[in-house]
Specification:
Blueprint: E1 10-13, E2 19-24, E3 28-33, H1 34-43, H2 49-59, E4 67-68
Parallel strand pairs: 3-4
Antiparallel strand pairs: 1-2, 2-3
Bound molecules: zinc ion (ZN).
Zinc ion binds near residues 26 and 27.
Length: about 80
């Protein structure tokens, strides 16, 4: 499995339907909505991985495993 943010080596974690959970050695553990993944694939978008990691770090002070939806996605423009 590859990381959805940085495309590095990541482990897939079992989670609820409609979500993908990954544990990446660079980005940490996060959950991403499948709708977001599909939309990004359709539009050929990729994440700004350094900004997404900073966002994840901030989220981890609130929740153990941050959930990324479209409104949270920080994309390369
Ligand atoms: Zn990663």
């Amino acid at each position: 499995m590859s990381c959805l943010i940085c495309a590095g080596q990541a482990e897939s974690v079992e989670c609820s339907s409609g979500w993908e959970e990954r544990s990446c050695s660079h980005c940490g553990c996060y959950r991403m909505s499948q709708a977001l993944i599909l939309q990004m694939m359709e539009e050929g978008q990729i994440f700004d991985s350094s900004k997404m990691r900073a966002w994840l770090t901030r989220q981890r002070s609130l929740v153990a495993v941050p959930s990324i939806e479209f409104s949270h996605a920080i994309l390369m423009r």
